[in-house]
Design goal:
Structural class: alpha+beta
Number of strands: 17
Strand content: 15-25%
Mean pLDDT: 85
Order of helices and strands: HEHEHEEEEEHHHEEEEEEHEEHEEHHH
Radius of gyration: 26 Å
Helix content: 40-55%
Length: 492
């Protein structure tokens, strides 16, 4: 309900903003504008930019080779996401790499990590090349973590974080964390330091990276940026979802600028160069502050610090050349890890017992609250995990089969919960229960079952739409290829 209310509020804000604009467009600035840096400093100061020449060359080489390897192995995939009750295929192709057993959910789609090398986990990759990819990305993750700590330290020093009660503690801790993540043992400040250690670690320790890839020349259509007239968008205006509050997002960008279309032949009168990829930023739902369009070149990085992701929105503006990015984030995984969902299953199965003599299964309790909890967990396992995985998570088998064992375990839990649903139905046919209590339990039970039936129909429809998308994609690629061949022949 909260999610739906939030979506309605966003739609109303967007409608109001577009109505206020009419046919006009809001102003925005790029680095060629005289007031660009003043605008950046005053309204977008929590956007930190690192040019490629500040990043170690060895790291550039490792990461860029990793991107190309993933593309060669066809490991980037378009997602079928749900917006306003409708399914859409993302123009950007993605893959999630991160901590073993972690997932990331956005726009009603759950992605499953390809686990990067982690102590204590036996991870078998499909090839040595995929192992090297994951190793390179965890190296990048460590580097961006250190850069984020430094940036937060600078932010504290300029007193832009408003929580003045912990500024000194955060500043001192940021310095020590950047050096070796060590904490002072001073008895008089150990409690403050410990609190700040948790705060900064939660906000800068990236547990995954969402990798993106798009070749604009392979797209039949790209949506136009609606507020400023910034041109083609690869990713529309948004706040990143399901992150730890006030955590930093770090992005490494790599556009293939050696391609033939990397430079624009058009005379640029004003605004951004359409040949170059940009990240766009704006103050959320504000028509007074000009927007910002920051060009992105090979190996550039940027950080969105503190509450920037909450107070501002960002988009990605397409250039002409193919582009990769690695977006490192501290995902809120309170409900998105194997540890969490296994715990939920164990909680539900506590209500199932086996007779030692007959081995017959029965329920320990028929209390309404217990039945409701078990059936809601049943729905969560099926629709938030199993169907999500088999719908698109299995594509990661190109990288590793790591998820197959835990998913098989979840399926076994689900089968037991299906039996528990049957046992509840059997109990309802008996007459021993008090009528009033029986009626209350039935009403509660039917609500959960009705929702399960609705979701099963919805997922069946989504699977059909995905099949149709892949069919149309093949046709679309044939059309693009034919157009490109025609253009080549006409030039000859």
């Amino acid at each position: 309900m909260k999610r739906r209310a939030g979506e309605r509020e966003k739609r109303m804000k967007k409608k109001k903003l577009l109505e206020e604009l009419g046919k006009d467009r809001l102003p925005y600035m790029t680095p060629v504008d005289a007031d660009f840096h003043q605008l950046w400093k005053s309204r977008y100061s929590k956007l930190i930019f690192r040019k490629s020449d500040t990043v170690p060359e060895e790291l550039h080489q490792m990461v860029q080779e990793a991107f190309l390897t993933l593309r060669e192995h066809d490991c980037f995939f378009q997602d079928l996401v749900r917006i306003k009750g409708k399914d859409f295929v993302t123009p950007v192709s993605r893959i999630l790499i991160g901590n073993p057993g972690y997932t990331y959910k956005y726009l009603n789609t759950r992605l499953f990590t390809v686990p990067w090398p982690t102590v204590g986990y036996d991870i078998k990759y499909c090839s040595p090349q995929i192992h090297d990819v994951c190793k390179a990305l965890i190296r990048l993750n460590d580097y961006l973590h250190i850069e984020a700590v430094k940036a937060l330290q600078n932010l504290v020093e300029t007193k832009e974080i408003n929580d003045t009660t912990v500024i000194d503690g955060e500043q001192n801790f940021a310095t020590s964390l950047a050096e070796k993540e060590s904490i002072s043992k001073d008895e008089s400040s150990c409690c403050v330091q410990a609190d700040n250690y948790i705060s900064l670690k939660n906000r800068t320790s990236y547990n995954m990276t969402l990798l993106n890839y798009m070749d604009p020349l392979q797209m039949l259509y790209l949506k136009q940026e609606p507020y400023f007239g910034m041109g083609d968008m690869a990713v529309s205006w948004h706040h990143d979802e399901n992150l730890v509050e006030r955590s930093t997002v770090a992005v490494y960008s790599y556009s293939c600028e050696g391609s033939a279309m990397a430079e624009s032949d058009e005379e640029i009168l004003k605004g951004r160069d359409p040949a170059v990829w940009h990240v766009g930023l704006k103050v959320a739902w504000d028509i007074e502050t000009p927007g910002l369009a920051m060009p992105l070149h090979q190996g550039d990085c940027y950080l969105m610090l503190d509450d920037l992701n909450m107070t501002h929105q960002h988009c990605v503006l397409a250039g002409f050349s193919p582009r990769f990015s690695s977006t490192h984030r501290v995902a809120d995984c309170s409900r998105g890890t194997l540890e969490y969902i296994f715990g939920q299953c164990e909680l539900a199965l506590q209500n199932l017992q086996t007779d030692l003599d007959s081995m017959a299964l029965s329920l320990k309790s028929l209390e309404t609250a217990v039945i409701k909890q078990v059936e809601e967990i049943h729905n969560e396992v099926e629709f938030e995990w199993l169907r999500q995985f088999w719908f698109q998570g299995k594509r990661y088998l190109k990288c590793t089969d790591w998820w197959l064992k835990p998913i098989a375990k979840l399926e076994e839990f689900w089968r037991k919960m299906e039996i528990m649903t049957s046992l509840v139905l059997s109990e309802f046919r008996k007459e021993e229960q008090i009528e009033e209590q029986r009626a209350k339990t039935i009403r509660c039970f039917l609500l959960v079952l009705t929702e399960r039936q609705r979701l099963r129909k919805e997922w069946t429809a989504r699977a059909l739409r995905m099949e149709r998308h892949y069919f149309s994609l093949l046709i679309g690629l044939d059309i693009i290829k034919a157009v490109q061949e025609t253009a080549t022949n006409s030039r000859l």
